[in-house]
Amino acid sequence: xxxxxxxxxxxxxxxxxxxxxxxxxxxxxxxxxxxxxxxxxxxxxxxxxxxxxxxxxxxxxxxxxxxxxxxxxxxxxxxxxxxxxxxxxxxxxxxxxxxxxxxxxxxxxxxxxxxxxxxxxxxxxxxxxxxxxxxxxxxxxxxxxxxxxxxxxxxxxxxxxxxxxxxxxxxxxxxxxxxxxxxxxxxxxxxxxxxxxxxxxxx
Length: 203
Hints:
Elements: E1 2-3, E2 12-24, E3 29-48, E4 57-80, E5 84-102, E6 108-114, E7 118-123, E8 130-136, E9 154-163, E10 168-178, E11 181-191
Parallel strand pairs: 1-4
Antiparallel strand pairs: 2-3, 3-4, 4-5, 5-10, 6-7, 7-8, 8-9, 10-11
């Protein structure tokens, strides 16, 4: 149950962006590049509150996050004739973000919780979307410790195990046109970022 917001302000975004686009050989070859910096103010989150309140969450303004990134695109037409054309486009995008601060008195906000063992959190001074979980308890020689029930024992403290945000995104597009017929092939790449596979959790 979520408590309705008592005083909630709209999120605001301040952005500075610089771009450059150039074409050569009658636009048979070219590129465009964009660089940006964003400040997202008064971000809206659901904060956990004590169960004794009769609810589980309250919606508040609780964050300031910055984003800095680059977007690049290369394009060209190796073949261009009256009946035949072959065009290529490649793109690349990367974004880095930081939770600059959270609501006063709040050190972290749990964005997603799985069985109280794995959490996606927003922590002040850290990148957005970090994944925290309990590692295995280990003996001095590095071997995993087995508990009395025959299961691997988990540690008592949370550890950083990953981040949901990819390192970069990219893609390549090929289009071949012959008279009135065109064929396009597209390859998309999402590099980096972790996912939690829970399919074997109850196995």
